[in-house]
Amino acid sequence: MYRTKVEHVHRILLTFMTTIVLVSGFSYRSLAQHEKNKIIKRYSIKDGLSQAVVNSIEQDDKGWMWFATDDGLNRFDGYSFTSFKFDKTGPNQFHDNFVQRLFKDSKGRLWVSSRRGLYQFDLSTQKWNVFLNPDKAGNNDVSYISESSAGKLWIGWYFGGIGLFDPQTNLYDTTQHFDLKSTATITVFEDSYGYIWSGEQSTGLDVFRIREEGKNPEKVIAYSASNFLPSQYVKCFLEDHLGNIWIGTTKGLVLFIRAEGRFIVLDKILPPQRGAFSLLEDKDKTLWIGTQGNGIYTVDLQDFDGRKVERLSSHHVEALDAFDISQHTIRSIFQDRDNNIWIGTHGDGIYMVSDEDKNFMKVEVKRIFAAAESAVPFYGLCNDEDGNIWAGTDSKGIYKFTPEGKLLRHYEADGKPGSIGDDVVYTALRDYNDNLWFGTYADGIYRYDKKTDSFIHYPRSAYDVPIPLGHRVSLLFEDSKRNIWVGATRGGLSLLDKASKTFKLNSEAPMFRTVDVRTIAEDKKGNLWLGCYGNGLLAYHPDTREVERIFVGTEPSNLLRSNIVHTLAIDKDNVLWIGTGGGGLGAYNLNDKTFKLYTDENGLINNTVFGVQIDEQQNVWCSTINGISRLDKTTGTFFNYTSNDGLQAGQFNPGSSLNNIPKGYICFGGTHGFNLFYPLKVSNSKIVPDVKLSGFQLFNKSVKIGGATEDDILEKVIDETQQLTLRHDQASFTFEFTALDYSGPEKCEYAYKLEGFDADWNYIGNQRTASYRYLPPGTYEFKVKATNQPNSWPAKFAHVKISVAPPLWRTPAAYFTYVLVLGLAAWSIYSIRKRQTHLKKRVKSEKNKRRREQQLVQDKLAFFTEISHEFKTPLTLIIGPLEEMMSRENNETASGKKLHMVHKNAHKLLALINKLLDYRKIESGKMMLTIQEIDIVPFVEDIFLNFKELSNRPNVHFDFYTEEKSIYTWVDPEKIEMVLTNIVSNSFKYIGEGNAISITLKKESGANSREFVCVEVKDNGIGIAKDQIRYIFDWFYNGKATNHISSGIGLALAKKLVYLHKGEIYAESTVGVGSVFTVKIPLGKDHFEPHEVIIDHDRLPELDLEIQEHDGHDDGPVTHAKKGLKTVLVVEDDEDVRTFLKEYLATDYRVIEADNGKQAMEIAFASNPDLIVSDIMMTEMDGIELCHTLKHNIKTSHIPVIFLTARSAHSQHKAGLETGADVYLTKPFSPEILSLTINNLLQARENAKRYYRTMFLTDEKPNIVSTDEKLLQKIFEVVKVNMNKTDLTVDTVSLEVGLSKTILYKKIKQLTGLSPIEYIRSLRISEAAKLLRTQRYKVYEVVYMVGFSDLKYFRKCFVKEFGYPPSQLLEKEHQ
């Protein structure tokens, strides 16, 4: 009980507090007509104002607003403030931040008063000019500035009296003296009748008149009396349109009526003892009075004729919009050229009262709980027959307002008899009989009874179909038949039964039970258009009781793009306007069924439309989330309005709209109140804004006027600059601009263009900067324009010309220099060419000679190379038979010794040929080193030992020296051995009469800490002449050997091989003393490039060792297949070599011959040999193509191929093996090595056959790689699929694998050693063994599973395959 009382008291207090806020919130409604619904703006320190005490206000001729504060001078452009403060850098700067008074004279000059003198602020250069009165040296505190009729300035000094300043001569007038009661002058001005009025701080006022120039002014004693003033402290003067003088003092207002020559104290205009600090008469002849601590009062002087002063009355402006200024001190009031009123306060910044009216009136109710304040949201709206507006809320019941926004009554659900039952009212309706209906969230419908000022409840019928949410009324609509339709949130569509005072579901259409209707519109034919939440747009035809789906669904065919419809309205053209949730505004023509959609892309302010109303001119008004849009149907143009136009700050609410056609106004409700406006009175700004250039930047830094840096190129403000000249490195700049529209700067849009660069205007919305980067040299003109009218641009614009200078190297002087230099260069070239003409023939002759010499060397080298290749074939026929004869002859016999000598010299000849070929490889860049890491010490020592027997010559001492036990390095041993052998061999050849040769091995360090192994070969032989030593490493150079004939290629080859190792080789020699040959090889392998070498980590033994280990005879005849000898096909175009091979191999193999690749391929396909030995270089088809063809044909892919060729290059060797060859041997070859190779390949084939036969015996899946294995895999799969078929034949398998029966036979025979029938039987037996191992089948079952029809025959085959019967399989394998 106690808690209930407390809550009731709390609710009463809360309501009371809300009501108080309402009264204060609507106090501005009683303002004088000229302030009512004006645009109000406030600017303070947070907006950039330097100080909140504003002493004076002025506007220059360009339109900039200027404000004098206690902390500097401020310029304002409608967007931002620019402050000018004390700067002690020079005498022409401002020396005091306290600015008392601003004044613009008739010439447009801006004058500033301060405690330190009179200043002129140059608006062009933004520099200060100070003018001190020498007679006031001790006191230059200028309190006021005004202009005389002669164009001079009246100056008032605080404790300095008054005087004149001539702006033309910049001198003070010292000839005139004023008889003042006090020099503490506060204000001074000259009226239109030539009277000078001086107001002092403590002695009232003095009035003077100048009768003759050059004489002292005459004091008007009658006007200078002060006993009639309510205060002796005079603050301001004002002359009105009648010539009367208004005098503001610290304790009241006085009026001097000129016609009567008397002063009247206006004690009814201001409260008692209130001072008038500032005065202004505006264009509407309204007097504005700024008071001390009491805000602003206004007096209407339109009907005032200077008489009947007692009829004058004032109005106290307690608030400007939402700003309470009733307690402020007003220090200055100013009217600008657009008739806006500017108010400077003491501590609260600046207020601006626009001359333009707000287009929209805002009505809001504040609610306060604890310390929090919020606005009451409005939903359902309707008006009564008296024109009052009824507004439903989401928690505060119903408010009743006058059309002017005055609150009349507040109805709440307080539980009293006749009150509304729910505070949540979402919809409202005034019916044809002027009854007011309200739909609530939780308690159905209420009708307002005007007679009893109470509400009558209309609940959902108790006899209605039960609907869980049927009481949540979100829609009330009356059709032309006076039926009232009731839409409930997710509660179907119902009809009101006035007789039973209930509403119940409409059963005419089954859809009405569940449909969520939020809005209804009725067309001329009586059809009802239903806007639904989730069901799009429906059409209900009452005559047929049919419901038609118009726009619904999520498919692209739904033109509405949304299934949520918030509002509907039909205009006079029978167009249905559809406001959707997120889909924009739809226009559905009910005559021709055409549809058009408007979205934000067309200018709509937001795509969620909550309310739509049509005005008298058929404009479409839409309330949205972000504001209101007006669509002009004739042009298709949208005009958008936001909170800057006076709209409530929140979003608008669904269905909250009202169109009072008789009164001509529209209302839209939202989360912060509702807005009322008269469509015919809504207009755009009357003022075309004056656009100004406000700033200029280079590289994003503002350019100072008259600055010290080279980038400070401005001498005047940018809006007065006609031409900008930029260097080429200053061609990146930014312009700042502004439109001087102080009533609505946020509505201004801008467009700019750079003539000479931009093809068209750039429309940038509210952006106020334009940047350009790295403009090319040239002349341009920057233009900018602004508008505050939607879709309308004025012709005037601000502009400035820009000249971007070219860089120094593109100036006319530079081009002249270029021409001059080019001319001189052309002359020089001509002279040089003329002098060189006679040399051309000599140069050409020398080139031809050099070319012939080079060609001769190449031809010579090519000749020797070709000859060397040709030598290899005869050497093969010499060495081969020779080795065979040596193997049968004892070396101790005379014949054996001769054969050994022939064999030795044949190999020497082969070594010379190989040297020549190696040199050719090096010259052509085709030789690669095969390097490995070796210990060089034993390696060199072995070479020493090989030559040791030569040192047995008389008187020749051959020694080896080294201090290193081991030195590991990476080399190609074969090539290094060739190098050292050549050098040591030369030492023996050229020893002459000498007697000593030595090899010294050591380690040395070179540059960059690189270590080398150094081998020195020293002798005391005949030596080499100095003029010959540089040629010893040249091709075909030979010295004078004593007993030997030199080829002249040994040292040349050695040098090339050392260079391939990145080493050095050089010689030092003296004739008759001897020679020293030095070889340096770097340690490690980092000096080799990867593409230059082949790294051999595990080199195979040399073939000649194998030759020595083999005695040339086999242990016995090699047994191969059961049927005779193996067949070897020899392919060789040289008949002698082919004959030799045939005779050599005939004892062990059946040899067939072919002299070219084409013939060999035909023989291979026909005879299917066991192995092929082939040359590479042949006519018609070479060996490479032959091998590739054989290896890629299923018929011959199993045949091993040996290449026997004179081509020994690494790349050739690699290419041969890549085609599929099994072995690559080079000529001259060892017949024994060839025989061993053939035997090993054939033996490998036998091993392969055994593998292929057992390939599918186990369950393990084999690794299938080669073509032959793939063939066997395919045969196995065919047999496995047909395993249980006893009629499986070779023909069937041949057909499945795609080979002829003959080829299949040969292929299986070559691969497995079995015939196809035997191989198939083997596969069946193998599969049987697998099945038996599973122990799931009996032997007789397995017999038929693997395709045998006879158990006895199966057992016989099984024993033949495994050696034991199938019954013992598991036992044998277990053992």
From TrEMBL:
Gene3D superfamilies: 1.10.287.130, 3.40.50.2300, Histidine kinase-like ATPase, C-terminal domain (3.30.565.10), Homeodomain-like (1.10.10.60), Immunoglobulins (2.60.40.10), YVTN repeat-like/Quinoprotein amine dehydrogenase (2.130.10.10). Residues 1127-1242 form the Response regulatory domain. PROSITE patterns: HIS_KIN, HTH_ARAC_FAMILY_2, RESPONSE_REGULATORY. It catalyses: ATP + protein L-histidine = ADP + protein N-phospho-L-histidine. Residues 866-1085 form the Histidine kinase domain. GO terms for molecular function: DNA-binding transcription factor activity; phosphorelay sensor kinase activity; sequence-specific DNA binding. It comes from the Bacteria. The modification 4-aspartylphosphate is found at residue 1175. InterPro entries: CheY-like_superfamily, HATPase_C_sf, HATPase_dom, His_kinase_dom, HisK_dim/P_dom, HisK_dim/P_sf, Homeodomain-like_sf, HTH_AraC. It is an enzyme of class 2 (transferase). Residues 1273-1372 form the HTH araC/xylS-type domain. Keywords: Phosphoprotein, Transcription, Transcription regulation. CDD domains: HisKA, PKD, REC_OmpR. This is histidine kinase. It comes from Ohtaekwangia koreensis.
